[in-house]
Amino acid sequence: MRDHSRLPRCWSPPLRVTVEHRGRMCLVRVSGEVDAFSANQLAQPIWRELAELPDVLVLDLLHVTFFGAAGVRLALQIRQAAENVEADLRLLGTETIVRPLELTGLGRLFRVHATLAEAAAALG
């Protein structure tokens, strides 16, 4: 009989998602890792917010520490859903977000800003 107690367990740090409304802008703040285990946890509040037809959806990913393939896939789904309801999608992110998008050739599909103020200024 093998002792499995010393083997590493699949564990993902908790993902934190909060939602703020600023007029017709919806700001979704995310911290933690966006991976195959947590992507659905992030998706659910976003689908709820898009159902409310915001003019602008801002995903604040500045405190995301990992953005894997599931995160990239979810970003594409969110982009399509935002487009379907005519919401302007903006991402706030660092190299943690930008690099996977660029490596997959998808960086050109997203408007990524370093700060909320920069994103707001770009909206006009």
From TrEMBL:
Family: Belongs to the anti-sigma-factor antagonist family.
Gene3D superfamilies: STAS domain
UniProt-listed InterPro entries: Anti-sigma_ant, STAS_dom, STAS_dom_sf
GO molecular function: anti-sigma factor antagonist activity
Protein name: Anti-sigma factor antagonist
Boundaries of every STAS domain copy: 15-123
PROSITE patterns for the chain: STAS
